[in-house]
Amino acid sequence: MRGRGWAVWLVLATGSAGCTELPFLTKPDDGRRGGYRIKGQAAGPGPLFLAGSGDHPPGQIQRFRDLAGGTGAYIVIGPFAGGAPAGAEARKAFQDLGVTRVDVLDGQDVEADAKLIARADGIYLVGGVAEIAARKLTTYAEPLRSAWRAGAAIGGTSAGAMVWGERLIVKGEAREAVTKGVWAEGGGLDVKVGLAFMPGVLVDPHFNERGRFPRLWVASGATDLTGIGIDENTAAVWTPADHRLTAVGPGTVTLVRHDGGDQGETARVAVLAEGRSADLDDWDVPRVE
Amino acid sequence: MAHGAGRLALAFMLAMVAGCGSTASGSRGDLAPRYRTLDRGPGALFLSGGADDPPPLLARFRDLAGGRGARIAIVPFAGGPGAGEPYRVAFTALGAGEVAVLEPDALAAGRAAIAGADGIYVVGGITRILVDRVAPFSDAIRAAWRDGAAVGGHSAGAMICADQVIVKGEGPAALAHGVDPSAGGLDLRAGVGLLPQAIVDTHFGERARFPRLWIATGATNRLGIGVDPGTAAVCTADGLLTAYGTGAVTLIRPGGAAGSPARVSVLGPGDRARLADWRPQPAE
């Protein structure tokens, strides 16, 4: 009785997954892990799913579930920025979407966690305090990187999205940015080093909701990186194989690039709405092989 | 060099005003403004991000109008009855001279007050209502401004100074439907036209308005000026835009073709940009 109930449930979940399939991705047929692939491309680094808000809206994490391979994927959750309760919340959100194999990393026992990471199809970081997440993740960088290079999808929300860039803003908002610049000691923005899975960029979530355009404009200019601003309930999906960045969700993804020269202190800016994508070669973001 | 560019911008602004077909009013008699001179060129534009202006910003407007003793005309047409009163009190406390509060139905008296004012301050409110009610006064405001009166306001009062005004629609509507009011997208209307080829947006950082101004400027090939609350963008006859207050002024120059990247600058307090090409200049 219980088994039949499960079966019906899974069919329903798979059916709904088909509706939200990302158009530029295709299901793997080679039996390798990591779920969906760029059409016509061999396995390489998996996609990066950068979400702009702290909670787990079903529409959004369903996209991540599909990037990791659908309901059959093995997903591990990194509660580094938000602690154990946030990890449990995220696990429930994935389980509600029909993912049966979900684990929350311990965060202390690096060796045990590394074993889970090595088997994962998707690794998802919850939000919280960006600085704490970045510091804790340094001890996890190697297992995470090898799983990602083998094709696992990497994702995160809010602070869990910021850490994948080359730098991240850990303190200061627009007002501090325009009055003091990137100058932590003087009350301006505090910018720290990220994991740089996505080199050449600086990610800023809750973007338009918190009026963060000025802070990303200032921080990306000062660090000479490409700024990626992500609205709430919205994600920026980077697919390394074709090096494109695609917006998913009702908000926008904003790209900011200062290119110096005789344009002085102006930046090139594009705003991507749902389904639109940008070629990151045009935005001075280095490719990752 | 910078002086030449300023003149260029000034000539540009004058050409736009001449295109509007307005003429300076003749003899003003006793109503002649105290601080305007004919050789001064157009007055300053004061674009504040709303909601209510703190006294330091109002003092800045008073100074742009000539300082203590300047005659101020307040245009509170969108704020409901009594909306002008706090501004009459505030400008009086700041040492302004005669302060007149205009009424939308008193056209002749209002136009006369505008013609005699050193500063014309437009109080914010519902943008669509303000655009409609200010329209009969627009040529008088343009004439006074060309003669040197400072013009400005906060929120909707700042937005209507430009030649195109967003009267309806926020970011999601703009992204989904562009500038197309019949489809639920942004609705644009003609403003007073003191700022040529531009669209001003207010409450900028606070209300997540970057996407809507980005869409509006791209669709109309106009320059976008987004002003945060507590902040004013001041355009002066020397061709410079200067940011005052506590927040940012965001300048968007569209990239031409629809969807192509724009060029964007962010000015903090004290930062300036040249109006002619919107290049920022270092703060002094």
Question: Could you explain how this protein is built, in words?
Answer:
The complex is a heterodimer of chains A (289) and B (284). With 289 residues, chain A is an alpha/beta fold. Chain A is built from nine helices and 16 strands. Chain A is globular. Mean pLDDT of chain A is 84; it is low at 1-21 and 27-41. By secondary structure, chain B is an alpha/beta fold. Chain B has nine helices and 15 strands. In chain B, the strands form two sheets. Chain B has a nine-stranded mixed β-sheet, with helices on both faces. In chain B, a hairpin with a 4-residue loop joins strand 10 (231-235) and strand 11 (240-245). Chain B is globular, with a radius of gyration of 18 Å. The chains are: A alpha/beta (289), B alpha/beta (284). The A-B interface holds A 174-175, 177-179, 208-209, 211-214, 217-218, 231, 250-252, 254-256, 263-271, 273 and B 171-172, 175-176, 204-206, 208-211, 214-215, 228, 246-248, 250, 252-253, 259-269, 271, 278-280.
